Amino acid sequence: MVRDSVPSSEVVRARFAELDGLRALAALAFVIYETIRLAPPLGLSAAAARAAADASQSLTLFLALSGFALAYPPLAAMREDGCAYLDVGRFAVKRALRVYPAYLVTLALAFVLPSLAVRYGLPALAHHRVPHDAGAFVRNAFFAGDGLGNDAFVALGLFARCYAVFPLALLLWSRSTRAFGAVVGIAAVAGQFGPGHAWGLGAFVPFGLGIVAADLRAQNHRFVRLALPFAFVAAAAAVLVEPHLETLPGASVGFRIDPLWAAALAALVAGAAGRRPLEAVLAAPFLGFFGVASFAIALVTVPVVSFVLRQLTPSAGAGGAAVNAAVVAIVAGCVLWQLIDRWFSDASLRRAAAEPAGNVLDALLRPFHADRVYIGTPPAAPEPLVAASARDRATPETPSGTDLASLSQRTGSAQELAAEINETKRRLAAGLLPPAAPPEGAPAARPVRVAAEEPSIPIFATPPAPPSGLTAGTARPAEPRPVRLRIGTSRSAGEATHG
Question: For a FRET experiment, which of 134, 162, 337, 440 has its CA 20 to 30 Å from that of 219?
């Protein structure tokens, strides 16, 4: 019985408090961006308008954080043990349980509330984008569709595509960093033009760089100490280049992800830990609360902000309505998290729920050898559990045909074999097993009782030549001689001993 020598990514369950702070800042930036986008002209200065537009990079930060959080457990296990694997079936189930419940509730409300408003004469809740067929609901439920005007729904479609390619991306990064970098570079270029932008290829850039950041943190790479200065330089370059990216051709579907912003924010994720002042601020409890509720806040931001702006702008003005809309959106997101999303953000609940469904998916993927993704260098074949001595381990004996026949007939589950081995070891240690019959012509011998776990070592440091014909586990009562202790079936000299 040998323990599985390749650890699963489940053995690493680390949580970084500073990442929750970054999630909270990303959610706040998303609320600000959507509020200013939906509000009437607020008379902002050019610099403020530019900063508000840059707040749309909150999606880029979310993608980098997601790539980091998903990749760190398997990569940390690989750096620790040399090899690890990702269970694809359980990974898919846990991702679906994390994002779909709150999303489907929000999507259902987006369909039901406006329909009820039209039916019962409540124009305040009406929405002209609501379709009247079930097909639109299915398309948005499983493929994000056009998002029904909600940018969070469109962003969720980008996340789902990144989740789908994550096992392959993790495998590629572990096998060839150059090939992984080439894929990220192609996605960065294609994501800025025509169909590549419409298909959301640019989303893989921050997601892939998040995987790189996770590996740098897992191996405590020296670049982590330089990550924050690099983040500031990349962000400054992104601000200078961004106006030119907006002039590129191509349909503007969803967000346009700037590769420079992706590099800057991934470096921020990698270097946030270890900087005491920054880490202390990001790990503050109030930021942590908004961080865990960030997904729910993003889901409800657009509909809540739109509703509050329609109701308050005539009376409170554009500025007052915008402030109230942002606050109400954050509160509504926290309510959604408290009622729905917090139950599925619990990792232990997702692990328990993913067990049965993950087994089904693993059974479907196993014929294609796609149920597990191994990264790193697999360990060598383990040694047998029972070995007579260090010399025997170095030069193992060849089993006879009778031994192979008896071994090939052994059947039973792993639990049954483990129970049998433990019982045999207990009886051997207690002296309950009968002594082996000595070979013909061998002198009388008395048994030497030893603990089952005792190693096989010479009893004396300077022994004379050992006598021939000794039975394993016995010694002559004559003068002190070296004895090698074996555990298993005793046979005459020259035959193999197999426990």
Answer: 162
